[in-house]
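Technical annex, item 7. During the second reporting period the consortium partners agreed on a shared format for inverse folding records so that results from different sites could be compared directly. Each record opens with the tokenized structure and is followed by the designed sequence. A conforming record, contributed by the partner at site C, is shown below for reference.
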């Protein structure tokens, strides 16, 4: 039971730990239904991709389109929480293992694993996404994703790590003439 007092909702003690997304729903302006109905494209399933997908799943995102064509290697295990020794020894695909591991974290999040090079995917996936995120180690993939995000006016978040340095940048203004990472489309 809850009761409202002077603009605040007072919850019973029993309700505090019984709802999966209780803590984030307390954030002013948070809309869990928007999160639960959102689709995020994640390009790259390595160290950053692992963390991003894990956090999206735990937040209750509705759908993740996960693109990566790599197999898991033992060297991935020191920085990728969603992989394990069995998946490395069996040379399983990163996207398949992430999908299976994340089912245990939140079975309500749908993960669409795509085992292809970014250049070879169906470009319709871009249009189906509410946000496009790159977690890659090469500039060509960043530019490719950025171009489609810019063209379809979809928010774009790019991230990367090199040695001790990391970066995250968000690019979206909704204005075709606005700055972006790089534009090669003819508009």
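Designed sequence (site C submission):
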């Amino acid at each position: 039971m809850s009761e409202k007092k002077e603009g605040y909702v007072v919850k019973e003690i029993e309700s505090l730990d019984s709802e999966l997304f209780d803590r984030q729903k307390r954030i002013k302006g948070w809309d869990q239904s928007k999160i639960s109905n959102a689709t995020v494209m994640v390009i790259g399933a390595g160290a950053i991709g692992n963390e991003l997908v894990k956090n999206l799943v735990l937040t209750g995102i509705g759908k993740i389109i996960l693109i990566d064509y790599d197999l898991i290697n033992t060297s991935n295990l020191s920085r990728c929480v969603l992989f394990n020794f069995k998946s490395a020894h069996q040379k399983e695909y990163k996207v398949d293992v992430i999908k299976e591991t994340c089912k245990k974290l939140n079975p309500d999040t749908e993960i669409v694993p795509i085992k292809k090079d970014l250049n070879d995917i169906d470009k319709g996936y871009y249009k189906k996404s509410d946000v496009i995120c790159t977690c890659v180690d090469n500039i060509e993939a960043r530019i490719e994703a950025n171009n489609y995000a810019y063209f379809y006016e979809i928010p774009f978040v790019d991230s990367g790590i090199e040695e001790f340095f990391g970066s995250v940048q968000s690019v979206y203004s909704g204005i075709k003439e606005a700055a972006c990472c790089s534009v090669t489309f003819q508009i």
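Helices lie at 22-25, 32-36, 47-59, 85-89, 94-105, 124-127, 139-152. Residues 183-187 have pLDDT under 50 and may be disordered. All partners now use this format for quarterly exchanges.
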